[in-house]
Amino acid sequence: MNTGMSIIVRTITRLVYALALVFGFYVIMHGHLTPGGGFQGGAVVASAFALYLVAFGAAGIKGHLSHHLLQTLEEVGALAFLALGFVGVGTAFFYNLLANSGGVFGGSVPLGPNAGVFNAGGTLPLMNWAVGLKVMTGIAAVVIAMLVGARKEETE
Amino acid sequence: MKKVAILVAFLFVGAFLLLTATSMRPFGEPSFAEMDDYFIANTQAEVAANNAVTAVVFDYRGFDTLGEATVLFAAVVGVLALFRKLREDEV
Lengths: 156, 91
Hints:
- The complex is a heterodimer of chains A (156) and B (91).
- Chain A is mainly alpha-helical.
- Chain A has one domain (7-110, 117-155).
- Helices cover 61% and strands 0% of the residues of chain A.
- Chain A is built from four helices and no strands.
- Chain B is mainly alpha-helical.
- Chain B has two domains: 1-60, no CATH class; 62-91.
- Helices cover 80% and strands 0% of the residues of chain B.
- Chain A binds chain B through residues 31-35, 37, 39, 67, 71, 74, 78, 81-82, 85, 93-94, 96, 99-100, 106-112, 114, 116-117, 120-124, 127-128, 131, 134-135, 138-139, 141-142, 145-146, 148-149, 152-153, and chain B through 44-51, 53-55, 57-59, 62-63, 65-66, 68-69, 72-73, 75-76, 79-80, 82-83, 86-87, 89-90.
């Protein structure tokens, strides 16, 4: 009952899964340099989870991931994002206190076209990570919950 | 007691929002073209990020992103609540 799809889909999934994860995390980490960011990269990672679930069925993830853990991680991401918004509350809510400060992600960027400085952007990369964690775990929790619910419907 | 606490919190947040509203610019004053030029000209110096879109989303308009994140959170909670009953039957 719902043990996944054909051997072709499973083989392709094994090949693509790691690449999709790496690409998603790359989009999240380089959100302040390249197109994309937390939302987009999180959606890519969640789509990799969804592909794995569709290819191997819910039995393939039993014991590895639970939506309780994913839900907790989503809340951690949301609270981290909110906390980062409060970092600069002395000036204004969501004020970027870390930008150009010389500390964590506090580097400066040369004006005009340049190759990009990773250690810059202030709270932007941290917020990208928080939102990315939130989006990937949130959507994955939704997919797992829906799949488990659909399996229950099928067996009834 | 609980109602008093809620009222105090309501008044506090309301006063905070009114205070902020009085210090805002008049409606429609920075026109869209002005704001575009400002973002393009100042993003690299102010936010130290090459990606102006991310700078707008997470810095200049971070509050908007907080709303988006809240929408996603509400959607996830709604779906999980919807499918919870089925799981209780299963156990």
